[in-house]
Amino acid sequence: MTGAIRKETTNYRRSQSAATIRKMSVLVVGSTALDSIKTPTAENPRLLGGSASHAAVAASFFSPVKLIGVVGDDFPKKYLQLYRRHKIDLDGLQIRPGKTFHWSGEYEENMNRRRTLETELGVFETFSPALPESHRRVAFVLLANIAPALQHHVLDQMARPRFVAADTMDLWLNIALPDLLRLLKRVDLFILNDSEAHQLTKEDNVIAALPKLHKLGPRFVIIKKGEHGAILSSPKGMFVAPAYPLKKLVDPTGAGDSFAGGLMGHLATARGSIETNLRRGMIYGSVVASFCCEGFGLTRTTKIKRAHIDRRVRELERLTRF
Amino acid sequence: MTGAIRKETTNYRRSQSAATIRKMSVLVVGSTALDSIKTPTAENPRLLGGSASHAAVAASFFSPVKLIGVVGDDFPKKYLQLYRRHKIDLDGLQIRPGKTFHWSGEYEENMNRRRTLETELGVFETFSPALPESHRRVAFVLLANIAPALQHHVLDQMARPRFVAADTMDLWLNIALPDLLRLLKRVDLFILNDSEAHQLTKEDNVIAALPKLHKLGPRFVIIKKGEHGAILSSPKGMFVAPAYPLKKLVDPTGAGDSFAGGLMGHLATARGSIETNLRRGMIYGSVVASFCCEGFGLTRTTKIKRAHIDRRVRELERLTRF
After folding, report:
1. Cα gap A52→A167, rounded to integer Å
2. pLDDT greater than 50 at residue B4
3. CA distance A292 to A187
4. A29 DSSP β-pair partners
5. How does pLDDT run across A10-38, given as a tens digit for each residue?
6. Cα B80 vs. chain centroid, distance in angstroms?
7. Is A143 left (phi over 0), alpha (psi -120 to 50) or beta?
8. A61-to-A134, A265, A304, B97, B225 alpha-carbon distances in Å
9. Which pLDDT tens digit goes with each residue over A196-226?
10. A135: CB partners within 8 A, 6+ apart
């Protein structure tokens, strides 16, 4: 970015009214959880986790974030402080009597397969997202991985958001497919991984799966391929995004949520065409996901600054130039 | 490429002596075979195959090629004509009494796994590559997949080639590892796939495998990841090359050889730094490999022209820009 362009952007922002600035936030709904994560080399009990936590922190590097979720009265204060340090608006976070959603899982040697050991839903079992009035007009909505019925319920309360992205997981394909299919008619961008794409379309080849996914509703589809990057399919064609190459994976939990969060955070503040912004957003998302993988839970992601992200983005530019 | 640069390149070539022009060829050694390939949808007996055939045809789109190999007296004349149509120099191709090397294999449903049904070595069993005098001063050498002892034997006959690349396969890691390790001290570029990299270094993570592969000798290492592209590691850092996205894979046999051939073909004619040329060469290699996968054996690759390749390269530029 040249100095001239940077200045112009600043002026543009300054000239916006308070109402317009509120529109530039990202609303994130998803799970807010405590994760106990075992890997071949370590065990980490009750870390801050959940799709919404990862996505919200990732998005917070780029734009203001409003979090929708629920935690129990056992939820550690330090994690509320962590959200606040990232300037995440917690007006939509319910604190209910009972236990916070707790997930425990174990990764295998090569970190590619994980096994759920235990899931305690706690207060999540009766969660009904209720949006404060101030949240209903947010322009960018990320429906992070959560039951499709809850994703619907959030959308029902929103006033014509400008851009809606939805993530999911295999569980919902198995137990809530009709809800998910209905949701796909209501979103601009559907983010899923390669094995979910296969499950949903019966196509082994992700490129062949793409038109079938568009037919389900979304104008934009992103298929995540972990260490192999991600592919965007849009009306203007495809974009092949690299993953940031990592020597060592400490814990991939939340990498996909971080990717989606970073992407939407960038989208909410970027100028230019949606196509260009999605491409660049995927690069930002990849980079935040790479930091996420370098520590347990959010431990690494919460230690970085925007400058660290920008450095890796420049590295990715060099790594892919030909 | 601007008009000015193109003109300069032309002048540069014109000013070279005949001896220098010969140096711009690629010498390709490897297997020359008849392949019988079964996939879930079709069966194709006795197609032209072998690592050297695929690599030589791929390289021929970019530079003159000299082929080193052996076939039996049963080798169909139409395949010799095919080589000649690609202006491949056959002075180093031995035609011996006996049968041509015949491989038959079967691909599974998702085309990712293949199973060898039968291997008849034929005249290949006693093959000893002998280089005509005119071949010994070629600057660019591609030791395509073949027994490491034969790859050594070719190098032994060469006068200080400018750039040597070697490909391999899991078989040689299993039965000829000492020969292969000795070979790696003699090559500039080692090309292998991700599972071979894992087997050789015991590293699950390809990025972590790279420094271990450099320690074995080669300055440049390329790890092929099939549909996920390829990674170059060089003294100046890494390059992440995309694969050309294909909706339908007909037959991936020879895709890796085509990649290596396209890459070396480009390298032999390109001006500029080795780093830049390798990056661009990988893109050309990926594109030729994509055509290879769209037909059985060499049937699709031999139907394309340079313009088809350039079109897909431009597409890859658009697909990766951010």
Report:
1. 11
2. no
3. 26
4. A68, A143
5. 333 443 444 444 448 999 999 999 999 98
6. 19
7. beta
8. 21, 7, 9, 70, 32
9. 999 999 999 999 999 999 999 999 999 999 9
10. A27, A66, A68, A89, A91, A92
Across the interface, whether the CB atoms of A208 and B280 are under 8 A apart is answered no
Angle at the Cα of A89 (from A86 to A91), degrees rounded to 5? Answer: 150
DSSP state of A41: S
How many contacts does A have with B, using Cβ atoms within 8 A?
Answer: 79
- What's the pLDDT tens digit per position in B32-81? 999 999 888 888 999 999 999 999 999 999 999 999 999 999 999 999 99
String of DSSP letters for A222-290: EEE-GGG-EEEEETTEEEEEPPPP-S--S--TTHHHHHHHHHHHHHHH--S-HHHHHHHHHHHHHHHHH
Alpha carbon distance B41, B317 (integer Å): 33
Predicted TM-score (pTM) of the model is: 0.91
Within the 85-124 window of chain B, which residues sit less than 8 Å (CB to CB) from chain A? 109-111
Say yes or no for a CB contact (<8 Å) between B321 and A279. yes
pLDDT in tens, A239-266: 999 999 999 999 999 999 999 999 999 9
Using an 8 Å CB-CB cutoff, list chain B residues near A237: 318-319
Q: What is the number of H-type helices and E-type strands within chain A?
A: 12, 13
Tokens of A171: 């569980």
Which tokens sit at A261? 């969060």
Residue B15, pLDDT above cutoff 60: no
DSSP string, B199-224: HHH--SSHHHHHHHHHHTS-SEEEEE
Q: Tokens 């390939």 identify what position?
A: B37
In this prediction the ipTM stands at 0.88
One-letter amino acid for residue B240 of the chain: V
